[in-house]
Amino acid sequence: MNPVFPSILSTDFYDLKDKLSKFKSGGIDFIHLDIMDGHFVDNLSFGPSIVQPIKKDFDFKIDSHLMVSNPEKIIPYFIDAGSDWISFHIEIKEGTEKNIEMVKKSGKKVGLAINPDTNISALFPYIPRIDYVLLMSVFPGYGGQKFITESIDRVAGLKEKVRSLNPECLIQIDGGINTTNTGSLHKEGVDLFVMGTSLYNSGNIEEEILQILKTMEGEKNEKAGIN
Ligand code: DX5
Ligand code: ZN
Fold first, then answer.
1. What is the pLDDT of residue 223?
2. pTM greater than 0.85 (yes/no)
3. With CB atoms 3.0 to 4.6 Å apart as the test, which of 10, 92, 138, 166 could cross-link to 196 if both were Cys?
């Protein structure tokens, strides 16, 4: 699986098809959808009706990040729309268990997202039963924000816990990701990288994806003692 998950939140929607075709030729497998309800976050984005048009021509898998106050209401719509992965926020105190079960029962992968100011220990009881954690490295609501550097330490703590509770559980990071931080984040244990703005600003999306993958190779080689 390609670890780069492009977010379409900050794309020029007039050009969406062209961007999707570049993602495809860049070897992307998953598109990340940022779903906002104007309540859990101030902003509004799009709904489940965008899933099929994105899958239609390019055969992408869809990862839906639900930044909503009532995930239990919208999860069934994303399941029916064909989203392959679905995450919702741990900050929603009620219904976490039930929502995890609802997604799992449908055969989709389930993730829990966590804001930068929520203690990662809130995730621990659920890690044995989820497929991925979405660690926010900016406060959710907008694309194009600056990466919060402390997120690197949070990855290290989370990775240690994931190793002992459920080594299959992947760590995904989201917000302000670019070639300057992917290498160190990968080294700390991040598996998947959601990226929006830095891909669109790069001038050449396919080349930028290659550069990101290279930053991870560098870390791998360093670990193996290869220069
Ligand atoms: C923020 C979203 C992110 C964001 C990523 O609420 O969850 O997915 O769009 O975009 P960049 O890479 O612009 O931070
Ligand atoms: Zn997101």
1. 56
2. yes
3. 10
